[in-house]
Specification:
The protein is mostly helical and 242 residues long. The chain has a domain of 147 residues. It is built from eight helices and two strands; from the N terminus they run ααααααβααβ. Strands 1-2 form a two-stranded antiparallel sheet. The chain is globular, with a radius of gyration of 29 Å.
Length: 242
């Protein structure tokens, strides 16, 4: 961008024009409207928007399942001090309770918006988020069983305990939660076996079959048995259950 201070194009012989200050422009306007390319220009982009309720569902479950994971490890190590690998585990309880309080705060936020916890749409998202969190933890932890074994824990038993306790807690808030029975664990263990094959590098048509089995079991969990639940603060009809 250039600015001529001469009234005529003939060099210094022309009449000098009084310079007028250029109106102020915002940085964004300058970058997008300058004739010459600016190396600092930020290309325009479309922002992604997530509805707050989706963030609340996921974060609530993350905090509550985190609490049950950590408090279960803490209590186990209190009963079995020989398995404490680091002194930090002696001070683990306060951190566990922080996770629990975070979840309680998010529960209050969700209750302040009853429409997020009632009706068929809320039931759908309850199914989606509970299963997403449970399956993700179950698969991830079974890929690093050595850590839990070093603490003296059985990975499968530990995960099942955490899922059951988280599910009981979530049932006080979400309109639907999965029924944890033998069929539920059978599908979860099948997913662990299939995931191990994927991680192990199965290929070709075998991989297609593994992926199909994986998808089939996920759909089976989603369409499986769920219990009606929820908060009496949100749905008065449920008050008799409490």
């Amino acid at each position: 961008m250039s600015l001529s201070v001469f009234g005529k194009k003939g060099g210094s012989g022309g009449a000098r024009e009084k310079h007028k200050p250029t109106p102020a422009r915002s940085t964004f306007y300058f970058h997008t409207h300058a004739r010459a390319p600016c190396p600092l220009a930020i290309p325009p982009s479309t922002p992604s928007f997530f509805k707050p309720k989706y963030i609340m569902y996921a974060t609530y479950l993350s905090e509550k399942i985190g609490y049950w994971r950590y408090i279960s490890i803490y209590r186990h190590l209190q009963r079995n001090p020989d398995n404490q690998l680091y002194p930090i585990f002696e001070y683990f309880e306060n951190w566990c309770q922080d996770e629990n309080r975070h979840g309680d705060f998010l529960a209050a936020v969700l209750k302040a918006k009853p429409e997020w916890l009632a009706g068929p749409v809320a039931a759908f998202w309850s199914r989606f988020f509970t299963l997403s969190v449970y399956v993700t933890m179950y698969l991830n932890d079974h890929q690093r069983t050595s850590f839990y074994e070093s603490l003296g824990l059985n990975t499968t038993q530990f995960n099942r305990h955490v899922i059951i306790e988280t599910n009981n807690t979530t049932a006080r808030l979400f309109p639907e939660v999965p029924i944890i029975d033998a069929a539920f664990w059978e599908r979860m263990d099948t997913l662990v076996a299939l995931n191990a094959r994927l991680v192990g590098g199965v290929g070709g048509l075998s991989k297609v079959g593994v992926l199909a089995g994986f998808a089939s079991n996920l759909v089976g969990l989603f369409l499986g048995k769920f219990a009606k639940a929820g908060s009496a603060d949100v749905e008065p009809a449920l008050a008799a259950q409490y």
